[in-house]
């Protein structure tokens, strides 16, 4: 809309100051009544809760937002002291806030819960001002329930993760002990079997077929070594999981201030995985920018992250013609090195992408996935003050970006 004249322009002239503006507004709109009407409109329209309360503890004036947010009628709100609408656990705090208002502290900001008509409660953020002479509190409140609930959920999640960490290290320890016996006993027994085998063979040659636990010896000699090998492999797998769990709950802190060349780390990860890379793809490439400054941290841990990421990318490829690309760049603006692992794999569905860094979340249990790779990687990157971002288009591929602050 165009300004019709100079009068309106003056209304928004900052130099006029609030009082000046008000005077202009009065002059323009025809006196105080008109201004009052404008304020009344704002008062009624506001989504924030606006009120005047007495130092006697009762509401004196409320806007409709009060009814909308809390569900009471104005009459119900006027009928009882406002303390009674405060959530019982927060009343003490609220009393102290009102006390500071009545002691003349000009503006008080606070957050507390208010009871709603339906028995639930809402978090309100208050800004209040008192006029001690008038004995009145002028206050504005905003419903911040959603933000508070999100914060609470985060806290609960953080506590759960801490508890999970303790639980996991306990479980890892408990599993590790018996697993050590299984592994060493299986290996010992496999040697014992080998030395018993030729005696049994001789007996078989001389006396013909005989039974062992009701199974003919000619069969037992075929599968006994395989059984023992399977026990050994199973226990090695348990060992792998236990080691992963331990890394997860106890990333070594001591070595986190080394100078790490990200290009070296990417190359190291490639050579560790060379066999896997050849197995999964014909198109693997590394594109590295030269002269990227060192980042601060543990090259061993960053390498572990890259191994996890590249391995995930490889496992996501539907056939060998699809590729994986690892690249490094220096992002001057944020002062960080960025390592990117990009694949042309199956991608990650949008409903699970939020969950992939959770411990034990896997869609690959059929091929031995433990769901620990990304949760460990996430913990490592966080310890390095970096970030880990996933972008995926199902059917087309996934890009993971690791951002790590450079050494200063
Ligand atoms: N590059 C990727 N492409 C497709 N899915 C992926 C990729 N990276 C991770 N995922 C998904 O995230 C899950 C968790 O990964 P991770 O923690 O490494 O555990 P795991 O590899 O043992 O399953 C995987 O099971 C997979 O569903
Ligand atoms: Mg993995």
UniProtKB/TrEMBL annotation:
Alphabetically ordered keywords of this record: Phosphoprotein
SUPFAM superfamilies: ATPase domain of HSP90 chaperone/DNA topoisomerase II/histidine kinase, Homodimeric domain of signal transducing histidine kinase, PYP-like sensor domain (PAS domain)
MF annotations from Gene Ontology: phosphorelay sensor kinase activity
EC number: 2.7.13.3
One Pfam family linked to the record: PAS_3
InterPro entries in the record: HATPase_C_sf (IPR036890), HATPase_dom (IPR003594), His_kinase_dom (IPR005467), HisK_dim/P_dom (IPR003661), HisK_dim/P_sf (IPR036097), PAS (IPR000014), PAS-like_dom_sf (IPR035965), PAS_fold_3 (IPR013655)
Residues in PAS domain copies: 35-99
Key word Phosphoprotein present: yes
Reactions the enzyme catalyzes: ATP + protein L-histidine = ADP + protein N-phospho-L-histidine
Domain Histidine kinase, first and last residues per copy: 170-408
Name the record gives this protein: histidine kinase
Organism: Candidatus Schekmanbacteria bacterium RBG_16_38_10
